[in-house]
Amino acid sequence: MSWCGVSYGEKAEAPEEQEEYTTPSNYALEKQLSHGSVTYTHVNEVWPNIFIGDEETARNCYRLQKIGVTHVLNAAEGQRNSVCTGAGYYRHISVEYYGIEAEDTPSFNLSQHFFPVAEYMHQVLSNPSIICLTHCPFHPHPLTVCLSDKLLVHCVMGRSRSASLVLAYLMIHKKMTLVEAIEQVKCRRRILPNWGFLKQLRELDSFLVEQRKQPTQEIPNAGSTGTTDPTEML
After folding, report:
1. Which domain does 74 fall in, by range?
2. Number of domains in the chain
3. Pair type for strands 71-77 and 151-154
4. Residues in the active site (predicted)?
5. Which residues are catalytic?
6. pLDDT tens, 62-94?
């Protein structure tokens, strides 16, 4: 399956000689985001079973069922510029809810959520749902079907907070650089993280690049048993 020229599940052949990667400046990243992006729509699948959407999508339970969403991650809980849904909003359609309080302001520390949210997303996408169907007259035992879970990550517009968290997930769990993650997402959805979030993503990028130069060290995650908080390293 191809996603923006990259075959999902396959690794591209590395060139014979490759310059050492360095994290670009905020200006370079903003330039990358502004060129070659798609038209804005309410929701887009940016990676297999990961959707980024806006408030309208998050509140449209019928559409969520039609898409097959099983989990909703609200990146816009709080008092200002927020989406007030909660777990109870989705109870009747059996959708699991996870929310964080985050403000779409350059000064807000979104990086504190990068590793916990990435770990949550990883767990959701790594554990498909098993559904037991009713008895079929042609089979002596009930049929079970294994279905992939689908995750909607949203904020108010689906461009800054939610997009930043998805970028962080791709960097942490799919081993992408920030440039690769942006390229992956922007060809499917029009995103625009604020400059403060870009700065925090740059810091995450630099941290991960340095960690991966040291094969004996594991990149920490929210599920590790150590006492070190990965966000303190950013």
Report:
1. 37-212
2. 1
3. parallel
4. 155 (phosphocysteine intermediate)
5. 155
6. 999 999 999 999 999 988 889 999 999 999 999
